[in-house]
Amino acid sequence: MHVRGSSLSHPEVVEALRPFIVTFWGQSNNERLPDDVLPLHQASGGASHFATGSNVRCFVLDADGRLLHWFNGFPNHTGNPMGRSSDEFAAYYVREINRSGAGRTARRAEMPLKLPEVGNGVRLFIRFTGQRDAHASPVVEAVESLDEWKTLSPPTSAREIDAAKLSRWLRLCYPAGVNEQLEPYTGVHGKLTLTPAGPNQAVLAGKVRMDLPDRKSPPFDGTFRAVLTYGTGGAVRLRGVVEGGYPRFDWNQVAWADWPLTVAIESRPD
Amino acid sequence: MKSSLAILAFCLACPVLRAGDAQRILDAFNAARPAERELGVFKLDWADSLKDAKTRATRERRPVFFVTTTQLKEAGNLRDGHC
Description:
heterodimer, A: about 270 residues, alpha+beta, 7 helices, B: about 80 residues, mainly alpha, 2 domains, about 5% strand
């Protein structure tokens, strides 16, 4: 979360990485490092994350795949990202990227915005509101639809829809966060009402409750509202929002607190 | 008669009410959808794997920036954000 939100999203880091092709690899459940990743870890102090002080490492490779420079994903070789602003993270990343010298002579690519995309589905923009730095960085997911458009077919009168029928969308409405929720919601509950709203248009609205994978956590409670515009040939344009309080444990207060979470949902293709 | 007129008036007003709801939802959507300046991570030139990145790097004569995360239950997706 902090690497992406505080560093890779920062405009100065984006500019510094303009010459680069960017990629990542994440280990799941202590799986073995792949053959092309292990040598890089060995060259940077060893396969164990204790070697560098954090579980995030950054590598700069030249055009022929040779390692030029590596650095700890967190400044000052500490695993604790707290207490540093996005600007401090970004300055660290820019400094380390530039130390490699790799970007100086490489072609600087154009950088069009390329969001996750699907052929027929929805795209979600998920983030905390009222937060700063990494916590404010939006998550973007795209989901192919199966029978959701059939579920949301044009209503002739108001009809109730079980929110669980849209669970493939709603289960992804959780924020970024290492050491917090790492998997989709395990349950989606609620009743939504789809109501005609003028020619070729309907409004979907209702309360939703989503269960976090951690059973000790309270659920996410919120509302889901959307406008559907129906075109010819079954085409549907959806614009909607999920809004609610995402439960986070406040260790200072030793109590659960709700952080406002907002999700913008748009149909794809537009 | 008056009650019939009232019911008729209400039914005629309903599309207007729903249109107002619709506009409020669209306004909320527009406020919630991030601006392009907030989506900088999606302006980076992402490759799906180190292998793909290195193949492209050789072809395009460009360097690679590679991030690894370890010691997590789930790998997540650094680009899209659920990580």
